[in-house]
Request: fold
Amino acid sequence: MDRWSKWATYAYWGLTLLVLAYGSSRVIQAPVDQVAGPIQKLIYLHLPVAANAFLAALVVCIASVGYIGGRRKVWDDLAHAAATVTTLNGSVLLLTGVFWAKVAWGQWWVWSPRLSFSLILWLLYVVYLAVRLRIHSPQKRAVVGAVYGIVAFLDVPMLYLSMKLLPDVHPTVTGLTREMLPTLWIWFAGVTLLSCGIMGARFALGRAQSGEVKTLPGEPGLGGMAC
Reply:
């Protein structure tokens, strides 16, 4: 990595930390919801990690289609990186959800459609990462991961439809007032920067781990560029 790349990396992570720190201070100062109480402030983290989990899952799906279409390892590395981000955001989504459930409903878990599909989403991508570790052949790992990544994404539209069509114990409104929205958008920016940074770092690590191997057996060349 040259000097400018290092400075760009430092600047990116510095900006990410600043946005998250500023967002945290805004959460402390944000008004307390009169109905839900202080637990409602979890929404500032809950909604952004949910959105970024869905977006990362979409990247896994697109990259998986790209790999099947071109057999280029760069697509497999991108899918792997995005699946890592999906799993991390999914973990935070579930954790914030169970704390909300404990305060709002008096129990840690409720088998509602939204919670159930969220749990399935998280499990799907945990299994995706676990399956990759079990397959030693790079080509077979990439093919299996690509097919799995496309199928796993089906849970995202199912989760969305469950929110719109099925009865649920979740509140139909978030309780966010106009004064609260700027803080939510700051958290969306911070969580998105963090998710993209983690994805980029994991992608770069995957490319570096390939070393001098430019292609998988049977895939086209990459124009002389090292993976």
Notes: Confidence is low (pLDDT under 50) at residues 212-227. The helical segments are 3-29, 43-70, 73-105, 113-134, 138-152, 155-165, 181-209. Residues 35-170+183-209 form one domain. The chain has seven helices and no strands.
